[in-house]
Amino acid sequence: MSCRVYLVRHGETVWNANMRFQGHADIALTQTGREQAEALAERLSDKTFHAVYSSDLLRAYETAAILAETHSLRVHKRPNLREINFGKWEGLTYKEIIEQFGDSARKWWNNPSITRIPGGEKLTEVAERCYNELRLIVEQHKDQEVLVVAHGGTIRCIVSSVLGINLNQYWRLRLDNTALNIIEFPEWDKGILVLYNDTNHLGGKSGDTFSDK
């Protein structure tokens, strides 16, 4: 059944640059973000992809559209690939969240898998929806290669699920803007992580990803 999935985090946004939590907020790419996507598109120009999927949020879709154009493919939007819903935390910095939501913020950082963000999601909910969506994509593209553009949180959840990593430790997985990650699925329950957080197309320049879980 082997399916190879190229998982890509979206390019930089203003809120990334300002270290603000984005979640479901629909923030566009900066010029730097578009240039990052263009650099990755050039890197992947000699690959043969059978389909391109992305979260329906603008920053992911814009990134996917740049990558898909090189291969003359359309982008299929999948809402289940969205970033975690940060609820009342969206648009805030880490410092502002601690100041305004101290107790609930500390509970979430200690145990995000079962702690609901005020007005948002638990990490287990995010992992379930994005992992199930990826399964549908993999099963639809047996013996093919597909490109999937999503977010830091959703990709970390997918990688954690594939490798059996405790979701409460997912923050240990660094993921930069337009980082390339590859997972090979010889069978759905035997996923192999081939590449993680590769940003060679950026010439050694990568940004801090803390603001976009």
From TrEMBL:
EC number: 3.1.3.73
GO CC terms, sorted: cytoplasm
Active site: H10 (tele-phosphohistidine intermediate), E83 (proton donor/acceptor)
Keyword match DNA repair: no
Residues holding substrate: R9, H10, G11, E12, T13, V14, W15, N16, R59
Ribonucleoprotein as UniProt keyword: no
Pfam families linked: His_Phos_1
Top-level taxon of the source organism: Bacteria
GO MF annotation: an example: alpha-ribazole phosphatase activity
Enzyme class: hydrolase
Gene Ontology biological-process annotations: cobalamin biosynthetic process
Coiled-coil annotated spans: none
Entry keyword set: Glycolysis, Isomerase
UniProt-listed NCBIfam families: ribazole_cobC
Protein name per UniProt: Alpha-ribazole phosphatase
